[in-house]
Amino acid sequence: MNTRVTDASRTMRKAPRQRRSQVMVDVILQAAARVLAKSGWAKFNTNEVARIAGVSIGSLYQYFPNKLALAEAIRQQHLAAILQVLAGAATEEDSLAIRVERLIEGIIAAHLINPSLHRVLLDEVPLSERSAHQEFEQQYAEFYRQFVVTTLSRDSARATVVAVVLASAVEGVVHDAARRDQLGSDDIKLELQRLIMAYLQS
Fold first, then answer.
1. How far is Cα 115 from Cα 174, in angstroms, rounded to an integer?
2. What is the pTM (predicted TM-score) of this model?
3. Over the stretch 79-116, which tens digit does the pLDDT of each residue have?
């Protein structure tokens, strides 16, 4: 079970400003994701990440003060991918069924990019302070609210609560499927789509 961590050193030490520095950070994060997915949180360490990335430990520490900061950067990449999926599902011109299908397929696809890594992030890596993901949570909540408003135009007073329930349902089903290694199941995807359609059309 995750524990919540309040250590401010979880964040990047500095942001890369030059193209070469950004490439190095990308390489470090790719290596970190591989090591974290393979070894799990308990055996995850910066020396192994630096070795796999082909950089010195000093170069790694220029940007990431510790393994918590590395894991947080990986988590932020995952959250950014989720927001990209949500943006692609927001076209109001399409029917509700198409938007729901696009939403579910996109979120599942984002979680299938590296299922082992996602399971480690979900169950092993300590959670961040809530403020660390404040921007993501605001955009995430606003997407679902707008998604619901377009469906419940005659009952928009319900929109905020319905959006919270809907987001929790999607997140719960997808994360549970990820833990069970069932994200690729067509049956789960279909049933989740039916669940959302039935709820929004009730």
1. 11
2. 0.76
3. 888 888 888 776 667 788 888 998 899 889 888 888 88
CA torsion sign for 45, 51, 57, 61 is negative
- What's the DSSP call for residue 89? T
Q: pLDDT tens digits for 114-139?
A: 888 988 988 999 876 655 678 888 88
**Cα→Cα distances 160→65, 77, 141, 148, 198, Å:** 39, 27, 9, 8, 18
Site of tokens 């959670």: 127
- How far is it, in rounded angstroms, from Cα 11 to Cα 9? 5
| Closest CA relative to residue 111, chosen from 163, 169, 166, 179 | 179
* Residue 87: both structure tokens together: 């943006």
Measured distance CA(30)–CA(129) in Å, rounded: 24
What angle is formed at CA 112 by the lines to CA 102 and CA 70, rounded to 5 degrees? 120
Share of the chain above pLDDT 90, in %: 44
Q: 93, exposed or middle or buried, with CB in 10 Å at 0-12, 13-18, 19+?
A: exposed
- Mention every residue, 6+ apart, whose C-beta is less than 8 A from residue 75: 121, 125, 128
User: pLDDT digits over 166-178, tens only?
Assistant: 999 999 999 999 9
